């Protein structure tokens, strides 16, 4: 089976907002600790993506989406480009989300490789991210060459409550 196509969006249509909201809701309802608590309504998820769309339009974020053969959005990842003036060389990777029905097919790794290419295009030489300690994403980042900084216990909540630890990673990129 071929991987979904990955592209960078610079303007988000309502169809993109709806598709991204469905992916976010699926991840949260599946237990992912990605800043939202249950129950997450589709309206709340759409509002989040409208805020992201505004940041993309201002050039503060790069947004990649993965779409399947029927053009349904099944994954996404962001690059937070807006950083303090003494950190123009770095960006944060955020909200790497893959719909549960397409997991374990290589899409998350493809999204991460694509966001690293976008970072190089944006002249970023240092990326940072955080993820739930002990989760599948943590193992993925290690396989992709990310360096673990450490673990912060009790950093966030699971969507249904209860504290979870977060692992912080960085990756240095070669830029032209």
Note down, in words, how this protein is organized.
This protein has a domain of 120 residues: Gcn5-related N-acetyltransferase (GNAT) (Aminopeptidase), CATH 3.40.630. Helix 1 packs across helix 2. The chain is built from four helices and seven strands, in the order βααβββαβαββ. The longest helix is centred in the N-terminal third of the chain and has 16 residues. The mean pLDDT is 96. It has a seven-stranded mixed β-sheet, sandwiched between helices. The protein is of the alpha+beta class.
Which key features would you list for this structure?
32% strand, 176 residues, alpha+beta, Aminopeptidase, 7-stranded mixed sheet, globular
Strand-pairing-aware structural class: alpha+beta
**Mean pLDDT score, rounded?**
96
Query: What ranges have pLDDT less than 50 throughout 5 or more consecutive residues?
Result: none
CATH topology of the domain at 5-124: Aminopeptidase
Annotated CATH homologous superfamily of the domain at 5-124: Gcn5-related N-acetyltransferase (GNAT)
- Work out the number of β strands: 7
Backbone CA Rg? 15 Å
How many angstroms separate the termini? Answer: 34 Å
The helix/strand order is EHHEEEHEHEE
Q: How are the strands of the largest sheet arranged?
A: 1-2-3-4-5-7-6
- Based on the structure given, which CATH architecture of the domain at 5-124 is correct? 3-Layer(aba) Sandwich
Query: What global shape is seen?
Result: globular
- Individual helix count: 4
Helix content: 25-40%
Largest sheet: 7 strands, mixed
Strand content: 25-35%
CATH C-level of the domain at 5-124: Alpha Beta
């Amino acid at each position: 089976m071929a991987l979904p196509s990955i592209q960078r969006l610079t303007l988000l249509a309502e169809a993109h907002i709806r598709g991204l909201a469905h992916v976010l809701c699926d991840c949260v309802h599946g237990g992912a600790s990605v800043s939202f608590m249950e129950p997450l309504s589709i309206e709340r998820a759409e509002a989040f993506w409208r805020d992201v769309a505004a940041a993309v339009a201002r050039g503060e974020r790069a947004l990649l989406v993965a779409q399947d053969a029927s053009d349904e959005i099944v994954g996404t990842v962001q690059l937070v480009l807006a950083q303090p003036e003494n950190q123009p060389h770095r960006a944060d990777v955020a909200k790497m989300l893959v719909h549960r029905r397409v997991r374990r097919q290589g899409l998350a790794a493809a999204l991460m490789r694509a966001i690293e290419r976008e970072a190089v295009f944006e002249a970023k030489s240092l990326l940072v991210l955080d993820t739930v300690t002990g989760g599948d994403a943590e193992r993925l980042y290690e396989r992709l060459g990310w360096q673990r900084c450490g673990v912060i216990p009790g950093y966030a909540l699971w969507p249904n409550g209860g504290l979870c630890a977060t692992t912080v990673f960085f990756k240095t990129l070669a830029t032209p």
